[in-house]
């Protein structure tokens, strides 16, 4: 037990010895190098930690588009319905496109102006949008229109 205690106290005593030599002005170049090396290692550790944190945070922020596409697949929508919703999100420049799936009110708030702005051939028929809204929210269009 005593040798283990001495081993634990050994590095601690050595650090106090280095500290005392710095305070008294009798430090050696090796002591200065050791302190600089420990400082550089600590700064490198903080840098690596910071970079890892930024990478993790960036993944959380940049996944809104991937989340939207995943939700569209999970809902089992047809390719035409997925394409329509992705076009709405793209053309309306939604930073969080999943808002279209939150409820009837945000859905209609973005889909109506988008649909009205589409030229003749590209404009989806009202029955297509109504069917999609009913599939997403399971409510008749009268309730969705009054939900705004």
What does this protein look like?
The protein has a domain at 64-146. Helices cover 76% and strands 0% of the residues. The chain is built from seven helices and no strands. The model has no long low-confidence stretch (mean pLDDT 79).
Mean pLDDT: 79
- Characterize the biggest β-sheet: none
> What percent of the residues sit in helical stretches (DSSP H or I)?
over 70%
Distance between the termini: 75 Å
Please state the structural category. Answer: mainly alpha
- Determine the number of helices (DSSP H or I, runs of at least 4 residues): 7
Number of strands: 0
How much of the polypeptide forms β-strand, as a percent range? under 5%
Global shape:
rod-shaped
Radius of gyration: 31 Å
- Tell me the series of helices and strands, N- to C-terminal: HHHHHHH
Quick description:
The chain has helices at residues 2-24, 29-61, 64-74, 79-91, 104-117, 126-137, 141-146.
Features:
148 residues; mainly alpha; 7 helices; rod-shaped
Task: Please outline the helices and strands.
Layout (H helix, E strand, L loop, with lengths): L1 H23 L4 H33 L2 H11 L4 H13 L12 H14 L8 H12 L3 H6 L2
Helix pairs in contact: 4-5
């Amino acid at each position: 037990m005593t040798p283990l205690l001495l081993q634990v106290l050994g590095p601690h005593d050595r650090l106090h010895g280095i500290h005392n030599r710095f305070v008294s002005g009798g430090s050696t170049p090796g002591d200065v190098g050791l302190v600089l090396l420990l400082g550089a290692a600590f700064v490198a550790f903080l840098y690596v930690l910071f970079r890892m944190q930024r990478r993790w945070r960036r993944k959380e922020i940049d996944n809104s588009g991937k989340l939207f596409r995943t939700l569209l697949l999970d809902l089992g929508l047809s390719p035409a319905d997925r394409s329509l919703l992705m076009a709405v999100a793209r053309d309306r420049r939604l930073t969080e496109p999943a808002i279209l799936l939150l409820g009837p009110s945000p859905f209609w708030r973005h889909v109506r102006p988008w649909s009205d702005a589409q030229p003749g051939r590209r404009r989806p028929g009202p029955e297509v949008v109504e069917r999609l809204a009913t599939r997403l929210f399971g409510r008749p269009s009268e309730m969705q229109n009054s939900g705004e």
